[in-house]
Amino acid sequence: MIPVLPAVDLARHWSLDPAIAYLNHGSFGACPAPILAAQHEWQRRLEREPVLFLHREIERHLDAARGALGTFLGARPEDIALVPNATAGVNSVLRSLTFAPGDELLTTDQEYNASRNALDFVARQCGATVVVAKVPFPLASPDIVLERILAQVTPRTRLALVDHIQSPTGLLFPIEQIVRELAARGVDTLVDGAHGPGQVALDLEQLGAAYYTGNCHKWLCTPKGSALLWVRRDRQAAIRPLAISHGANSRRTDRSRFLLEFDWPGTFDPTPWLVIPLALQFLAGLVPGGFDEIRRRNHALVLEGRRLLLEAVPQPEPCPESMVGSLAAIVLPDQPEPGAAPLGLDPLQLRLFERHQIELPLPLWPAPPRRLLRISAQLYNRREQYQRLATVVAGELAQERAGTKEQRH
Question: Which domain holds residue 71?
Answer without folding.
Answer: 35-281
